[in-house]
Specification:
The protein has a domain at about 60-104. The protein is an all-alpha fold. The chain is built from 4 helices and no strands. α1 packs parallel to α4. About 70% of the residues lie in helices and about 0% in strands. It has helices at about 20-45, 45-55, 60-80, 85-100.
Length: about 100
């Protein structure tokens, strides 16, 4: 008589999951923090350039901001598919340049 399975085959259990040490958990937290900050750095620095640029024209900075947000999100999609961290950082930086609340 076959044994009854209480789990779905292929489902992860605590036996199948790799053991994480405190060092790997700390490294994961640091990486998550660096990824989060990589969006805020250009967002803090670029308003000075946008403020000088909007003194002469308002339409061009608005279009550039929209295009850079779109390009950053497209690179973010590519980095998700390829699992490359440098592309993820680049995507966050480009999106941060375009994400200016005073232009919206």
């Amino acid at each position: 008589m076959p044994k009854a399975h209480t789990e779905i085959e292929g489902s992860p259990t605590s036996v199948h999951l790799p053991c994480q040490t405190n060092a790997t958990r700390l490294a994961d937290r640091n990486l998550q923090g660096f990824i989060s900050v990589s969006f805020q750095i250009p967002r803090i620095q670029s308003p000075a350039g946008y403020s000088f640029w909007t003194n002469t024209a308002y339409r061009a900075p608005l279009i550039f901001s929209g295009i850079s947000c779109l390009a950053g999100n497209l690179v973010l999609c590519v980095s998700y598919d390829t699992k490359l961290l440098p592309l993820l950082y680049l995507a966050r930086l480009v999106t941060g340049v375009g994400a200016q609340p005073f232009l919206d």
